[in-house]
Specification:
elongated; OB fold (Dihydrolipoamide Acetyltransferase, E2P); 2 domains; alpha+beta
């Protein structure tokens, strides 16, 4: 009796294992079918493309529904009104407005807005913008990282775009020699006087909101404080 019961239990266990294996196989096959469907659907959407209606600035597009905004990954354009902002905006408009673009690698930025690698045909717009120097390279992680980073290095070496027009280490006006610099990770605003330890090497990047001042009073009024390295 006990032996018969043991055989019965073994038979039930074997059947149960087979059923579980069959069920897992069905689930796996279903998952593969669904994945194939969504990948295919995404490819179709990308192939169709999206029409660009306009630009907000040098790194943000508005699509044809006039609601969807997409930022360019790797790109940091001058804010509106700053040195180089109009040039960056005009260039992005020339490259994209009225054209169909393909969005790859879409991710949210820190505010939840979409960022993407943007193509017009085979042209990577992000790289084209960086190569002109009118936008700065902003670190990111995709397969295109190295080619975009290299384009930025060449633009800097050639002093193209903002690197030629908006960066300076010596004062354009000999009467306005105070350097107003920003520590961007913490948004700390400081100014350097001639004779301060870091004065000779500090670069004023006007496309990023840095400025030359003619007096300490002017710098303080703009929210800058004297650097601690100034004696």
């Amino acid at each position: 009796m006990f032996q018969q019961e043991r055989y019965t239990n073994e038979w039930v266990t074997t059947i149960s294992r087979r059923l579980v294996a069959i069920l897992l196989g069905v689930l796996l096959a279903g998952s593969m079918v669904l994945n194939a469907y969504f990948v295919s659907r995404e490819k179709v959407i990308e192939d169709q493309g999206s029409m660009v209606a306009g630009t907000i600035d040098g790194d943000t597009l508005v699509l044809s529904d006039n609601k969807t905004r997409v930022r360019l990954r790797y790109v940091d354009a001058p804010e509106s009104g700053l040195c180089g902002s109009q040039e960056a905006n005009d260039l992005l408009a020339k490259l994209t407005v009225g054209k169909k673009v393909r969005l790859n690698g879409v991710i949210p930025d820190q505010y939840g807005r979409g960022m993407a690698l943007i193509y017009v045909g085979s042209t990577l717009v992000n790289k084209e913008m960086v190569a002109t120097g009118w936008v700065r390279y902003h670190a990111d992680e995709t397969a295109e990282k190295e080619e975009i980073k290299k384009a930025n290095e060449i633009a800097r070496e050639k002093k193209s775009g903002v690197y030629g027009k908006c960066e300076s280490i010596t004062p354009p006006n000999p009467k306005c020699v105070i350097k107003g610099n920003i520590d961007f990770p913490i948004n700390k605003y400081t100014y350097h006087l001639p004779g301060c330890t870091q004065y000779e090497t500090a670069i004023v990047q006007e496309d990023r909101g840095e400025r030359w001042f003619c007096s300490e009073a002017e710098a303080k009024k703009a929210g800058f404080v004297k650097a601690k390295t100034c004696r």
